[in-house]
Amino acid sequence: MGFxxxxxxxxxxxxxxxxxxxxxxxxxxxxxxxxQYAPAxxxxxxxxxxxxxxxxxxxxxxxPYENNLPLVEKHMNSILxxxxxxxxxxxxxxxLFKSMVNSYFLFDLNIRINHQCLQMKSKYYTSKLETIxxxxxxxxxxSYYNRLRRNLAIVESTVQSFNQNRHALLVDILxxxxxxxxxxxxxxxxxxxxxxxxxxxxxxxxITLLQKSRLKFLRLKFNEMGDNLKRxxxxxxxxxxxxxxxxxxxxxxxxxxxxxxxxxxxxxxYFEDENLPTEGFSSCTNDRFIKISExxxxxxxxxxxxxxxxxxxxxxxxxxxxxxIYSKRHYDTLSYLxxxxxxxxxxxxxxxxxxxxxxxxxxxxQVLNWLQLAGLVDYVCACNNPQYKxxxxxxxxFRLFAHYNSKDHPLLFDIKIDIADAxxxxxxxxxxxVEYFFxxxxxxxxxxxxxxxxxxxxxxxxxDLLRKYDDNPDYDILHRFG
Length: 482
Description:
Elements (H helix, E strand, L loop, with lengths): L51 H11 L11 H7 L12 H12 L1 E3 L6 H21 L7 H22 L2 E4 L10 H13 L6 E3 L1 H35 L10 H7 L27 H4 L3 E4 L2 E4 L18 H7 L3 H13 L7 H13 L12 H11 L7 H15 L13 H21 L4 H14 L2 H10 L5 H7 L1
Parallel strand pairs: 2-3
Antiparallel strand pairs: 1-2, 4-5
Helix pairs in contact: 4-5, 5-7, 6-11, 10-11, 10-12, 12-13, 12-14, 13-15, 14-15, 14-16, 16-17
């Protein structure tokens, strides 16, 4: 075996490098690798995604003036819409309406009366009467004892009336679309079930006047009761009894003084703006919150409506009259107000001119309530402030009548009523206005303006109507147009 060298390898060795070999990375199956998640995107919270209850609270917080939330999108409109038709509205929208009313239009006429103080004062005088009756029964014949007892009864009955008529609606609510006869009726029905009276509709000046006068009356009555008690105790101390004393309003007011304040008989709070008259009313009205009945001072309910022409009186919005001629809903609302409420005088001629503008273009409206025109005009005349003259309004109605009488009337085929009936309704309006004009103060120049307009229009009907109240026009007018 000589060709084999003993002790030597048959394979040639490979040279080794000094760098270490890379570590082997184990192969892992893809199914066993950990899952990687995309970062979570936060959800965007929009107004439309909020719960209905939250949207309602936001809506009420914004208030009724310039509130455009219902116009944001259809969804918002559907949950905030309220047009006053209770029968077709969603059930949850009436409570929304009530929240808006309670927050912005409902006012407490007793807000200045501290009822805890009132109860303490009534209890104080009641206890005094009981004490005198128990320990000095002979003094129950005293005039001062009987006046004190009667005055206490007057206060109790007056406070009961105040509570029954505690709230008032601000008249501004009548300017909003969500008001209807149905809504007003339901509000009053709810009050009736609670034993309360008709929900009055007041201007802000009337509300302030009533809030002031109610507190002033109660303070006056308790001051009078304090005077009665003082004189009664003086009688007991001196052993005298006055059984016949004559009282009148002047003697009562002159004898009054502020009650002595005790822990059991606290004073009513004084306010900085208690002084009368109230803005919008004359002193004549403000002084009439009390009246004398059978020798006793009573609260004069309804005194605030004595001055019909006072600028502070609540008035029906003029737009409600104008819309009533083409909207049954507005006409029903106006009829409800006319039936149950009494408002101050207004600018009647301006309303008549607005109505005439609607009648001049009947094609712009789906329907006109021609049958209601006469009633509207009658109501406008009844509510007119005499300082506003109907001269311009009558001239406008003259032109409207001539417009409908013209043979080339451009709207003959647009109005939804027989043209003869429309002319008749307009002439009835003219008759009512002319009758009102001549029944109230007017000057010669205003009378001449009516004659000139009728002669210019060459309308025999209008000329004959004027002759019914004024025989003939002045000679120069007759000569010019004769």
